[in-house]
């Protein structure tokens, strides 16, 4: 008998998941899973809950929440030898990862249907300084705006909140002096930000890392070198269409390992949350987690 554990964040998004819970449980039961659930109680609780579920032999963990909840569930199991499969029901404010694996957003029952008709696929995740990430990591003042946006504002206006906060911060953004080693190459100089990404859709910029693949063992590394305000606005506009990658201020390349050594104090951003201070070495863990992806996405991944 297959066993599934649903770990859901009751505060996520518009708190819409709970009313669907009986239907969700029933659908997983009908599909042959003996299913139970756990509502997270505070920040970090999904890490513990996921680890316990893995240790108790659940075959599938279903994370219901936003990117923050999936990140925690992954952090709970990524270090274990025997890792259950993961599935995602996206009900958060930002659901970049669910979008990347083809799970429909903001429709709980459709998401469940997609999971149950989908396939497990081995997907890369990232590791840095003992922590794991699923979408993106980065550093530089500009990346800090993701956690300076108050969550109430996030829920109310979604992605727009990031842009507004970004506009407000722009004039105060200072470059930072760094050394970045990536797969044997070295960049040394002042940067506005660097990003190490696993998926191509980041904070509403769907073409920020246009070449990223979910299962090739490589990050997309993007470095934005020192730029003035006018240059920065021009590059951000290009980035909306994915046309930023040939700009002279940008380094955009694939890398399996990225080591960042900072001269100035620099915070690490992991999947949009504060992840401690840099320096750090980012390692791509090749096909480390089995995620249930949509049938369409499974076909695309097989063809890549
Ligand atoms: N019971 C709880 N009370 C308060 N916070 C919680 C609770 N359970 C989980 N959390 C925290 O809420 C954070 C955000 O959750 P999550 O990502 O699921 O939803 P979101 O905020 O709607 O979406 P996103 O993070 O994608 O913007 C998580 O990082 C988690 O630590």
From TrEMBL:
<dbReference type="InterPro" id="IPR017438">
    <property type="entry name" value="ATP-NAD_kinase_N"/>
</dbReference>
<dbReference type="Pfam" id="PF19279">
    <property type="entry name" value="YegS_C"/>
</dbReference>
<comment type="similarity">
    <text>Belongs to the diacylglycerol/lipid kinase family.</text>
</comment>
<keyword id="KW-0443">Lipid metabolism</keyword>
<protein>
    <submittedName>
        <fullName>Diacylglycerol kinase (ATP)</fullName>
        <ecNumber>2.7.1.107</ecNumber>
    </submittedName>
</protein>
<dbReference type="InterPro" id="IPR016064">
    <property type="entry name" value="NAD/diacylglycerol_kinase_sf"/>
</dbReference>
<keyword id="KW-1208">Phospholipid metabolism</keyword>
<keyword id="KW-0594">Phospholipid biosynthesis</keyword>
<keyword id="KW-0444">Lipid biosynthesis</keyword>
<keyword id="KW-0418">Kinase</keyword>
<dbReference type="Pfam" id="PF00781">
    <property type="entry name" value="DAGK_cat"/>
</dbReference>
<dbReference type="InterPro" id="IPR005218">
    <property type="entry name" value="Diacylglycerol/lipid_kinase"/>
</dbReference>
<dbReference type="InterPro" id="IPR050187">
    <property type="entry name" value="Lipid_Phosphate_FormReg"/>
</dbReference>
<keyword id="KW-0808">Transferase</keyword>
<keyword id="KW-0067">ATP-binding</keyword>
<dbReference type="InterPro" id="IPR045540">
    <property type="entry name" value="YegS/DAGK_C"/>
</dbReference>
<feature type="domain" description="DAGKc">
    <location>
        <begin position="1"/>
        <end position="132"/>
    </location>
</feature>
<dbReference type="GO" id="GO:0004143">
    <property type="term" value="F:ATP-dependent diacylglycerol kinase activity"/>
</dbReference>
<keyword id="KW-0460">Magnesium</keyword>
<keyword id="KW-0547">Nucleotide-binding</keyword>
<dbReference type="InterPro" id="IPR001206">
    <property type="entry name" value="Diacylglycerol_kinase_cat_dom"/>
</dbReference>
<keyword id="KW-0479">Metal-binding</keyword>
């Amino acid at each position: 008998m297959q066993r599934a554990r649903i770990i859901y964040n009751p505060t996520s998004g518009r708190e819409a998941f709970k009313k669907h819970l009986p239907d969700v449980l029933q659908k997983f039961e009908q599909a042959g899973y003996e299913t139970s659930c756990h509502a997270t109680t505070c920040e970090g609780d999904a890490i513990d809950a996921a680890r316990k579920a893995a240790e108790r032999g659940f075959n599938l963990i279903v994370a219901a929440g936003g990117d923050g909840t999936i990140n925690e569930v992954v952090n709970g199991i990524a270090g274990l030898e025997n890792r259950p499969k993961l599935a995602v029901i996206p009900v958060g404010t930002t659901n970049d990862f669910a979008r990347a694996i083809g799970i429909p957003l903001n429709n709980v029952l459709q998401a469940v249907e997609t999971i149950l008709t989908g396939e497990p696929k081995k997907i890369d995740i990232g590791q840095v300084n003992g922590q794991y990430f699923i979408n993106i990591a980065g550093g530089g003042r500009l990346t800090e705006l993701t956690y300076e946006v108050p969550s109430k504002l996030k829920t109310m206006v979604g992605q727009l909140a990031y842009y507004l906060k970004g506009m407000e911060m722009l004039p105060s953004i200072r470059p930072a002096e760094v050394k970045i080693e990536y797969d044997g190459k070295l960049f040394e100089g002042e940067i506005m930000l660097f990003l190490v990404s696993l998926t191509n859709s980041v904070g509403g910029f769907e073409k920020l890392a246009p070449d990223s693949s979910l299962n090739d063992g490589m990050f997309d590394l993007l470095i934005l070198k020192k730029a003035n305000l006018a240059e920065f606005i021009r590059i951000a506009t290009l980035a909306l269409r994915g046309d930023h990658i040939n700009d002279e201020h940008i380094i955009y390349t694939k890398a399996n390992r990225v080591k960042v050594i900072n001269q100035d104090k620099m915070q690490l951003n992991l999947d949009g949350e504060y992840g401690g201070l840099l320096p750090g070495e980012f390692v791509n863990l090749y096909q480390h987690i089995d995620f249930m992806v949509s049938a369409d996405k499974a076909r695309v991944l097989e063809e890549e």
